[in-house]
Amino acid sequence: MNKMTEFSWPIRVYYEDTDAGGIVYYANYLKFLERARTEWLRSLGIEQNVWLEHRIGFVVRQVQMDMLRPAKFNDELRVTVVVERLRRASVEFSQQVLDQNGTILCQAQIRAACVHLGEEGSAVRAVPMPTEIIEVLKRAS
């Protein structure tokens, strides 16, 4: 699969996203990245809550993140999503958080696995993505 077209989502840095010095707390970048992936799926017509009713979800399996420059309170950011690799049961993403000037503040490689959430008391296990989801992701590339 070739790289898909870049998806971009705007994020505003709120006071709650920052530490006492007004700098975005590092863990909040993970939230920004997650929000962009969720909005990317939504833009493709994939609503995660519908799949959760079938006990199908996505979990982050691996993260590699580089913090290059700080974002600050009230900054307007742009978070990008690009699919690097689509596998049967996982998706690998390249993501960036950029400021208004296009300067990369944070970059990350994320691998998300498709899982069956099991019934109450049973284990979560990796499963192949439903065909409907794979077809949508292939068309998006």
Automatic annotation (TrEMBL):
Q: Looking at the record's lineage, which domain of life comes first?
A: Bacteria
| Metal-binding as UniProt keyword | no
Which UniProt keyword terms apply here?
Hydrolase
Task: Give this protein's Gene Ontology molecular function annotations.
Answer: fatty acyl-CoA hydrolase activity
Keyword Hydrolase attached: yes
To which protein family does this belong? Answer: Belongs to the 4-hydroxybenzoyl-CoA thioesterase family.
Name recorded for this polypeptide:
Tol-pal system-associated acyl-CoA thioesterase
**What is the native source organism of this protein?**
Pseudidiomarina halophila
Q: Which gene encodes it?
A: ybgC
